[in-house]
Design brief:
With 78 residues, the protein is of the alpha+beta class. The protein has one domain: Multidrug-efflux Transporter Regulator, Chain: A, Domain 2 (Orthogonal Bundle). 36% of the residues lie in helices and 19% in strands. It contains three helices and three strands; from the N terminus they run E-H-H-E-E-H. Strands 1-3-2 form a three-stranded antiparallel beta sheet. Helix 1 crosses helix 2. The longest helix has 10 residues.
Length: 78
Amino acid sequence: MPASAKLFFTLQEVADLLSLHPKTVGRYSATGEIPAIKVGGIGNHEWRVRSDWLDQWAGDNMYDPRGGADGRGQRSRR
């Protein structure tokens, strides 16, 4: 299944896609930095990230270390 056809990602999958440590992605989701939801029962829940939320987050947090002519040399913040 292509990644674009997947609706929800686990934190491990998000970490793999973004080349981040899974604990970093977990911290980002717990603090709301990356939009995510908890699924599962009491005491047995896991975080999930919708693919469109991840696309939006990635677009909003692009970083060009070269600076670029458009002035996007730093991460944009909402």
